Automatic annotation (TrEMBL):
<dbReference type="InterPro" id="IPR003593">
    <property type="entry name" value="AAA+_ATPase"/>
</dbReference>
<dbReference type="GO" id="GO:0005524">
    <property type="term" value="F:ATP binding"/>
</dbReference>
<dbReference type="Pfam" id="PF00005">
    <property type="entry name" value="ABC_tran"/>
</dbReference>
<dbReference type="InterPro" id="IPR003439">
    <property type="entry name" value="ABC_transporter-like_ATP-bd"/>
</dbReference>
<feature type="domain" description="ABC transporter">
    <location>
        <begin position="19"/>
        <end position="256"/>
    </location>
</feature>
<keyword id="KW-0547">Nucleotide-binding</keyword>
<keyword id="KW-0067">ATP-binding</keyword>
<dbReference type="InterPro" id="IPR027417">
    <property type="entry name" value="P-loop_NTPase"/>
</dbReference>
<keyword id="KW-0813">Transport</keyword>
<dbReference type="InterPro" id="IPR017871">
    <property type="entry name" value="ABC_transporter-like_CS"/>
</dbReference>
<protein>
    <submittedName>
        <fullName>ATP-binding cassette domain-containing protein</fullName>
    </submittedName>
</protein>
<dbReference type="GO" id="GO:0016887">
    <property type="term" value="F:ATP hydrolysis activity"/>
</dbReference>
Length: 269
């Protein structure tokens, strides 16, 4: 496969955030999940979105991915409004996006190498013979031997499955990558290893990353910035390294996992 087949076109627009959401609102029935979400992610930066269960983190990511249509607001990628794109442009945007799903979402019916190159094969951007070599290269990037490519995902440990899912997310060399709970279900050491790989891979690709996590150690490791979603809005954003001592009582309570604080008081009401 030529690099041409998998390289994303250089699309950075000077002075324009890679991703910009403004006033995004989404309700399901009577439930207003997003109530005016504003987010900016600069190119080559890594944003972590925090928030309680059901606060709308996945809905936010799915809206950027075009899987959920917001009721109001704008979502721009490289200054282009994704909600008003034609299908061709949206498809081209999809080709530049990688995604690591919460549970890995690997297909047990396919060997690892086909999982890694799934999108490239499905879109006929690569031959099967070249996909095998490409998968071995990408597996090496996430610390796995090429021979793992012939195994079924079901034969792998949770940590290895996450590595394969990461390999799949980066295989087409995307310039935007979404990570949904990348360390869930892993022990703390394996979680740190996966975080390290995520940081390395994102940096090597020069990609922009948006992650969802409940794991604060992971948020500090993989995020340049963090944003907290609460009651349908971003109530705080700042350096991920400051989580736990931001001075914002709500964010600090959440990040430190404290029972007492403004979130608890709201739950009691
Ligand atoms: N397709 C849908 N139809 C109806 N309700 C939905 C749909 N998608 C999400 N919701 C609702 O929107 C709310 C936010 O869901 P979302 O999955 O974004 O939460 P989350 O912050 O990612 O939660 P968690 O941390 O538990 O994964 C929830 O109440 C959920 O039930």
């Amino acid at each position: 496969m030529t690099d041409q087949a998998i390289l994303s076109p250089p699309v950075a627009v000077a002075g324009v955030p890679k991703i910009r959401m403004r006033g995004v609102r989404k309700a399901f029935g009577a439930k207003q999940v997003l109530d005016g979400v504003d987010i900016d992610v600069d190119a080559r930066h890594s944003l972590v979105i925090l928030g309680g269960s059901g606060s709308g983190k996945s809905v936010t990511i799915k809206s950027i991915l075009g899987l959920i249509e917001p009721d109001e607001g704008t979502i721009e990628v490289d200054g282009r409004d994704v909600l008003r794109m034609g299908w061709r442009e949206r498809e081209a945007l999809g080709d530049r996006i990688g995604m690591l799903f919460q549970n890995g979402a690997l297909f047990d019916s396919l060997p690892v190498w086909e999982n890694v190159c799934f999108k490239l094969l499905a879109q006929k951007r690569i031959t099967r013979a070249k996909a095998r070599d490409h998968a071995a290269e990408v597996l090496a990037q996430v610390g796995l031997a090429g021979s793992v490519g012939d195994l079924s995902p079901a034969e792998l440990s949770g940590g290895m499955q996450k590595r394969v899912a990461l390999a799949r997310a980066i295989a087409a060399r995307p310039d935007i990558i979404f990570f949904d709970e990348p360390t869930t279900g892993l022990d703390p050491i394996m979680g740190a290893v996966i975080d390290g790989l995520i940081v390395d891979c994102v940096k090597k690709l020069g990609a922009t990353a948006v992650s969802i996590t409940h794991d604060m150690a992971s948020a500090r490791r993989i995020g340049d910035t963090a944003a907290m979603l609460h009651k349908g809005r971003i109530v705080w954003s700042g350096p991920a390294g400051a989580l736990g001592h931001t001075g914002n009582a709500l964010v600090d309570q959440f990040a430190n996992g404290e029972r007492e604080g403004p979130i608890q008081m709201e739950l009691r009401r």
